[in-house]
Amino acid sequence: MRVDLDHLPQLQQDELSRVRDTLMAEFTQAIAGATQPWRKNGRILKIVLFGSYARDDWVDDPENGYQSDFDLLVVVSHEDLTDVADYWYVAEDKILQNQAIRRPVNVIVHTLSEVNQALERGEYFWVDIVRDGVALYELPNHAFATPKPLTTNDALEMAERYFDEQNRSSANWLRMAELSLKEGDDRDWRNKAIFNLHQATETAFACYLLVYTLYFPRSHNIKFLRSLSEDKESRLIDAWPRATRVDRRRFELLKRAYVEARYSSSYEVAADDLDALASSVKNLRSIVEVLCLERLAELRAASA
What we know:
- This protein is α+β, with helices and mostly antiparallel strands.
- Helices cover 60% and strands 10% of the residues.
- It contains twelve helices and six strands.
- Strand 2 and strand 3 (66-67) form a beta hairpin.
- The longest helix has 33 residues, at 271-303.
C-alpha cells in the first residue's frame, strides 16, 4: 500500500493532514479515562485514503454541484470502538465545521479482523482498497491480509442474493412513499412520504454497492452512499440533478429526512419537492437495476 500523496495538490494534502489529525486527537479524547482494558488500550491501527483521491481520478467542481469526497477507512483494535456515536461523531462534526477542510469527508470504521476476513474472502471492495489505497497513518505490525481470489461462482451467488433482496426492498419503500402521498397532503403524510423516499434511495444504493462490491457501509447517510456509488459508476450521477441550488436543497432535504421527518417539529417538505424527489428516486432505481443486471450477466458469463 502506498504512503505518499505526491499525486495530489498541496491543498488537498494539507486538508487530509487536518482530517487525520482530528480523527486521532478526538479518538484519544474519546477513550481518555477509560477503565475497560479494550477501551483503555484502544488504538487506531490504520487510517487509509481510498476512492477517487487515492486513484487520482477525483473531480473538484463545486460551483456546478460536483466535488469528489475524501473517503477514509479507519481501522481500530476492538469491535466496540467502531461505534460512530460513541467514538467518531465529535471528530466527524469538527471536520465538517472546519473551514480549512473544503471537501466532504466520509469515514468508515472497522476492526483489522473484519477487514482481513473480507480480504481472505476476496471481497472486491476491500481488495480495491488494499490495491489503490494510501496509508495516512499506520501502527507497525498490523498488516492487512493478502487478498485471496473470490471464485466467480461465489461472487455470482452473493450478488444474485443481494440483488433480489435489495431491489425488492427499494421497490417496496417507493411504493410506501406513493401510498403516503395518496393518503393526504398534510404535513404528517408528506413527512412519511419523504422518509420512505429516503429509504428507497438508501436501499437502491445498497443494491448497487452490494452487487458490485459485495460491501455496504453502516450508514444511513445517502450523500455518503451516493458518493461511494458514483465513485464506482458515473452513470448514477444522472439520477440526481445538482446544477441549481434548488436541486441541491432537495437532495439535502432527502438526506435529513431519515431523522428529521420523524422527529423534528420544524421539518417541512413541499409537494413540488416531493414530486421532484420521487422522480429522481424512480430514475435512480431504474439505473441501478440496469447496472446490476449488467453485472450479473458478466458474472454469469464468466462463471459459464
